[in-house]
Amino acid sequence: MEIIKIFDTTLRDGEQSPGASMNTEEKIKLALQLERLGVDVMEAGFAAASPGDFEAISRISEVVQNSAICSLARAIPKDIERAAKALEKAKQKRIHTFIATSPIHMEFKLKMQPSEVIKRAVEAVSLARSLCEDVEFSCEDACRSDIGFLKEVALAVIEAGAKTLNLPDTVGYRLPQELGNIIKELKSCVGDLAVLSVHCHNDLGLAVANSLAGIQNGARQLECTINGLGERAGNTALEEVVMILKTRKDIFGNLDTRINTKEIYASSKLVADITGIRPQPNKAIVGKNAFAHESGIHQDGMLKNRETYEIMSASDVGIPQDNGLVLGKHSGRAAFKDKLASLGFIELTQDALDSAFEKFKVLCDKKKEVYDEDIRALLTEEVTKIPQVFELLALQISSDSNGVPYAAISIQKDGISRIDAAIGNGSVDAILKTIDRISGYNGVLKDYKVEAVSEGKDALAKVVVKAEFEQNKPAFIGHGLHLDTLQATAKAYIGALNSYLSMRSLIIK
Ligand code: KIV
Ligand code: ZN
């Protein structure tokens, strides 16, 4: 058996996806889930990018035990030193440094001669090796670089101490056969002196196919993200490459990963819940319809033999098998805890468990049927909770005689409740305006999504808002869960404000 290392970059390249920024608590929660999933390396961020990234990497380094934690660093001393510092507490650590090697990047972006690029790469790797045993080097835009130059850089950085050589298709340009040939050439050049790695972007929809071509030609590390999140069209989707290797053993023979595939669904859900970016319904492996059989002919075949229409089973990727009624208002704490464990929520603090149980009981009083998805939503809200500077106490929506809506809201801060009201262009606008008046912040709404968590007219509404509280600074995501959409909206907007306040000191001014 030969292991393909899974290098997950959801927390770094994934977070670069437009609108996918996460706060520190959310990143820690996701890092723990990636550890459960069994990734070999997780790129937890880019330490020099912002104090927020630095803080997230160092806190993840403290809590994750079984995966190596990695920080990205440009090939400059200050970045590499920052990465090493952020990783100080990690049990297993890796510094990942990079510089571009393609003619277009060297001439226009770096304004450097190839000889200077090699020198910088070697210096960066040497410095990184003096601070960390495990160093990865990436030739950014490798797949549009001159192959001879690529080999020269490869041998130089390996000599300087790089143990992994990553060859990204940074702009998602290559076709599988071309990418396979690049890896083959490099493999014949470096042999076993370093692990070759692929990092593919999906601009032409070929990231997964290209990654597999890389593996078939000698790459032994695969860089990928949950749900294929990432810059522009995203990166290679972890769940797809892992399930291809598992399902097509006839082609990939003795190649395998250490991924616990039963954690795939929980990982995908968590990323979607945190970022508010849901995979499309027909997305392979984790889309809502990936294992749904709609037509009568298919259903008939499935009942006779699942393999008529299924090449892998939903349970292999951890999709809960019974999405029926789960628990009711008479269920006790022990049954609730068992259900949480079956949904992958283990290692909960007593506080989180108590608070979720209380919310579950309240929900049972209001909602006839409580599904797995309701419980999952309640728990995700609980475990990604950030310090509540502002807390919603009450919300009432009315309209005047002309039908103009107004919101009356009471919010608590530091134990003191404040009440105000405002009219708006619609109920949502009235709610946000009132919250702004009470809090003294002026948010700009960048995105607003509502979805039903489960089935039925009494389904819980999950609202995700993205709002900017400082001009030209990152927008923050907030989540609100409630049977009433407008209540959920207020909770989500206040959540985004709380998230901003918890990260404010960590945003680069
Ligand atoms: O796509 C890319 O080239 C990258 C590098 C920084 C590895 O993300
Ligand atoms: Zn990338």
From TrEMBL:
Keywords: Acyltransferase, Amino-acid biosynthesis, Branched-chain amino acid biosynthesis, Cytoplasm, Leucine biosynthesis, Manganese, Metal-binding, Transferase
Reported cofactor(s): Mn(2+)
Binding site for Mn(2+): D13, H199, H201, N235
Every Pyruvate carboxyltransferase domain range: 4-265
CDD domains, sorted: DRE_TIM_IPMS
Keyword Membrane found: no
Gene Ontology terms, MF aspect: 2-isopropylmalate synthase activity
Spans annotated as Regulatory domain: 391-509
EC numbers on record: 2.3.3.13
Pathway: Amino-acid biosynthesis; L-leucine biosynthesis; L-leucine from 3-methyl-2-oxobutanoate: step 1/4
Any one Pfam family match given in the protein's UniProt record, by short name: HMGL-like
Reactions catalysed according to its record: 3-methyl-2-oxobutanoate + acetyl-CoA + H2O = (2S)-2-isopropylmalate + CoA + H(+)
Record text on subunit structure and interactions: Homodimer.
Similarity comment text for this entry: Belongs to the alpha-IPM synthase/homocitrate synthase family. LeuA type 1 subfamily.
NCBIfam families listed in its UniProt record: leuA_bact, PRK00915.1-3
Task performed by this protein: Catalyzes the condensation of the acetyl group of acetyl-CoA with 3-methyl-2-oxobutanoate (2-ketoisovalerate) to form 3-carboxy-3-hydroxy-4-methylpentanoate (2-isopropylmalate).
UniProt name for this protein: 2-isopropylmalate synthase
